[in-house]
Specification:
- The complex is a heterodimer of chains A (121) and B (110).
- Chain A is built from no helices and eleven strands.
- Chain A has 121 residues and is an all-beta fold.
- In chain A, strands 2, 4, 5, 6, 9, 10 and 11 form a seven-stranded mixed beta sheet that branches. A four-stranded antiparallel beta sheet of chain A has the order 1-3-8-7, with no helix packed on it.
- In chain A, a hairpin with a 5-residue loop joins strand 4 and strand 5.
- Chain B is an all-beta fold and 110 residues long.
- Chain B is built from no helices and nine strands.
- In chain B, strands 1, 3, 4, 7, 8 and 9 form a six-stranded mixed beta sheet that branches. In chain B, strands 2-6-5 form a three-stranded antiparallel beta sheet, with no helix packed on it.
- The chains are: A mainly beta (121), B mainly beta (110).
């Protein structure tokens, strides 16, 4: 079964850091770009970051640029989201998603169940 | 990057057809054939329904179709069923390698 599984969420104080992980299985991990999307409580979906198949190219939303870093370890079939300088407005469910086709921007066809990040003192 | 514009809500009766619009700009929807649509039931993970404007992933009902004209993409659901009641989000590639989502549309099946 093709799936992705997120982990690493939790409660963190403003200004703190957190690293999310997303493990892929059931597909050729190195064939697909990967993406993080978040959803604040009661709100819509927001694109956060994407990374190319080999990991050499990353893309970030302006809202997280300079604070969040996406990376991947293809030997572990895992993509990461390092989140620094966290703010209250980063509180959300964070979803990891697999790209459909050759690039992240075609769409995302496999989504994880999400991991919750809460930024609060 | 501004969000794409979707109606907050649409509704229809079982068996009817409805269309959800997604309006962008020349920086996103109009310039690229890269609009995707996602369905999200309450408390559930998003599901890809349409990608590259009009393509349907395997396993998605052919009652769902995508189209685009100028800066507006549309998702049409024909033969509405109770299980279609959900939130729907459009998403487009945008200039400078960004992705931008719409605000979401709540579909109510009457």
């Amino acid at each position: 079964e093709v799936q992705v599984l997120e982990s690493g969420g939790g409660l963190v104080e403003p200004g703190g850091s957190l690293r999310l992980s997303c493990a892929g299985s059931g597909f050729s991990f190195t064939t697909y770009d990967m993406t993080w999307v978040r959803q604040a409580p009661g709100k819509g979906l927001e694109w956060v970051s994407s990374i190319s198949k080999i990991g050499g190219i990353t893309y970030n939303a302006d809202s997280v640029k300079g604070r969040f870093t996406i990376s991947r370890d293809n030997s572990k079939n895992t993509v990461y989201l390092q989140m620094n300088s966290l703010r209250a407005e980063d509180t959300a469910m964070y979803y990891c998603a697999k790209g459909v086709g050759d690039h992240y921007y075609y769409g995302m066809d496999v989504w994880g169940q999400g991991t919750t990040v809460t930024v609060s003192s | 990057q501004s969000a794409l514009t979707q109606p907050a809500s649409v509704s229809g009766s079982p068996g009817q057809s409805i269309t959800i619009s997604c309006t962008g700009t020349t920086r996103d929807v109009e310039s690229y054939n890269l609009v995707a649509w996602y369905q999200q039931h309450p408390g559930r993970t998003p599901k890809l329904m349409i990608y590259e404007d009009t393509k349907r992933p395997s396993g998605v009902s052919n009652r769902f179709s995508g189209s685009k004209s100028g800066n507006t993409a549309s998702l049409t659901i024909s033969g509405l069923q109770a299980e279609d009641e959900a939130d729907y989000y459009c998403c487009s590639y945008a200039n400078n390698n960004k992705l931008v989502f719409g605000g979401g549309t709540k579909l109510t099946v009457l």
